[in-house]
């Protein structure tokens, strides 16, 4: 004889069971609408709770981060206004009466004051000292010290000894090595070395007789001296002209992007077309990106924001001539921000077609990616995400695109992000374990479908 206990799990027709069957992105969308409504009605505390709930479900949701930042700024502004009103109500102005100089009362209780006058002393600029010309023995000694201990101080000393003999190539080489090791070297007295070498290189470039090495050196010096646009342009030109200089040019731009100065020139480009495709094949997760853009003011280093977590990106390869270098750096909310170095093109509004392949990590920290894209404005309809997989993948949380077809054992799903305000599907890596049955030209797939997709929209 036994007993059957019931009531310890949600009934299949209960509200809780129904709620659990709703996809995560649908729950996020519903909460986002509620949060925006509360924000517009100035119920900021309630809206904050909603957006925090969204981040519990999707920690990389850019809209939730954006509205939380707006709520914080709005509350701080209102708090400051309330303090100003309290001061004005109490004193009649924003500065307390006892802090205004005209309201001070002079008397014995304040202290004894005497007015004293003195003649201004003439300014005498300090005498600038220059090093005497270094001997061969001093050069050898400094070179040995730098070889034994690779420090920025020893590199700077060796550079300045070469400069005392006006051996410019060696001097600037070791000076830049010292600056790479310690940026504080740039604050030391270089005895006019940077300015003199920069002027000579500028004249050489203006006369049309520079070498690739001249472009690289001038570009690095221009970045140090604050001429960032010319510096980036010259470094990229050196890499384009000489494959031998590709590695040092790549390193120079990487160091510059890692600094805080890059945000000054990081102006997003005008993007006309964005297509990305997730592909699982040969035990590798990859994301193909094709971006057609026009940089503003013909800038050659542009940022592209993605929704791919920085922890999910292991490497990036370039598949088109319209990109010289690409760097994946942390962006908003832990996402990957792509910095793309573009070659110089003629014309007032040059257009670039950039093709990239992102190799993705599949581990406990990286279990999937969001195929959304918010780079394109709503008026630009060519905004698509694709999932290209084997038709034998049995996904538990399968999502259906606006356009689907089966071809050579592959399933191709296309999602029109232009109709969902940039919102795309979420790809769970565990749902894709079967490789593609045959080699696939992914670029051809995502471009050849253009005519068929236009028929749908």
Descriptive account of the structure:
The protein has 457 residues and is of the alpha+beta class. It has 3 domains: 7-98, no CATH class; 136-263, Alpha Horseshoe (Serine Threonine Protein Phosphatase 5, Tetratricopeptide repeat); 266-456, Immunoglobulin-like (Sandwich). It has helices spanning 15-20, 24-40, 44-57, 62-91, 136-148, 152-164, 168-181, 193-206, 212-225, 228-241, 246-258, 262-265, 442-448, 450-456; strands spanning 270-281, 284-294, 301-309, 313-318, 325-330, 335-341, 352-360, 368-370, 383-390, 403-407, 410-416, 426-428. Strand 5 and strand 6 form a beta hairpin. Helix 8 packs across helix 9 (212-225), helix 9 runs antiparallel to helix 10 and helix 10 (228-241) packs antiparallel against helix 11. It is flat, with a radius of gyration of 31 Å. The chain starts with 14 loop residues before the first helix and ends with a helix.
């Amino acid at each position: 004889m036994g007993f059957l206990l019931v009531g310890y799990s949600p009934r299949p027709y209960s509200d809780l069971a129904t709620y659990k069957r709703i996809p995560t992105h649908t729950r996020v969308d519903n909460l986002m609408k509620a949060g925006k409504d509360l924000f517009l009605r100035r119920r900021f505390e309630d809206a904050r709770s909603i957006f925090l709930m969204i981040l519990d479900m999707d920690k990389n949701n850019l809209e939730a981060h954006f509205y939380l930042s707006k709520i914080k700024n709005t509350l701080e502004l209102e708090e400051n206004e309330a303090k100003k009103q309290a001061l004005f109500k109490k004193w009649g102005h924003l500065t307390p009466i006892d802090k205004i100089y005209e309201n001070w009362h002079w008397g014995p209780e304040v202290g004894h004051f005497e007015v004293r006058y003195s003649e201004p002393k003439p300014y005498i600029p300090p005498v600038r000292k220059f090093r005497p010309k270094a001997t061969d023995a001093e050069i050898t000694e400094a070179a040995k010290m730098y070889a034994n201990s690779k420090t920025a101080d020893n590199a700077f000393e060796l550079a300045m000894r070469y400069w005392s003999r006006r051996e410019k190539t060696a001097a600037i080489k070791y000076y830049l090595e010292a600056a790479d090791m310690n940026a504080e070297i740039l604050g030391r007295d270089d005895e006019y070395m940077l300015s003199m070498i920069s002027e000579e290189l500028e004249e050489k470039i203006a006369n049309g007789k520079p070498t690739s090495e001249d472009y690289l050196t001038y570009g690095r010096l221009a970045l140090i001296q604050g001429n960032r646009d010319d510096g980036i342009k010259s470094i990229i030109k050196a890499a384009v002209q000489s494959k031998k200089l590709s590695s040092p040019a790549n390193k120079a731009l990487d160091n510059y992007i890692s600094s805080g100065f890059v945000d000054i020139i990081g102006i997003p480009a005008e993007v006309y077309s964005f297509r990305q495709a997730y592909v699982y094949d040969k035990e590798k997760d990859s994301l193909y990106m094709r971006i057609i853009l026009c940089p503003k003011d013909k800038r050659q280093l542009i940022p592209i924001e993605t929704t791919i977590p920085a922890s999910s990106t292991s490497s990036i390869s370039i598949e088109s001539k319209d990109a010289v270098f690409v760097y994946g750096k942390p962006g908003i909310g832990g996402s990957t921000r792509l910095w793309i170095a573009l070659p110089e093109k003629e014309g007032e509004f040059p257009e670039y077609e950039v093709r990239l392949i992102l190799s993705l990590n599949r581990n406990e920290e990286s279990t999937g990616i969001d195929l959304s894209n918010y780079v394109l404005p709503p008026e630009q309809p060519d905004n698509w995400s694709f999932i290209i997989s084997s038709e034998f993948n049995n996904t538990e949380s399968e999502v259906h695109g606006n356009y689907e077809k089966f071809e050579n054992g592959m399933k191709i799903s296309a999602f029109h992000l232009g109709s969902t305000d940039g919102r795309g599907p979420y790809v769970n890596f565990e749902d894709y374990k079967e490789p593609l049955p045959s080699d696939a030209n992914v670029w051809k797939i995502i471009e050849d479908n253009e005519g068929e997709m236009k028929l749908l929209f």
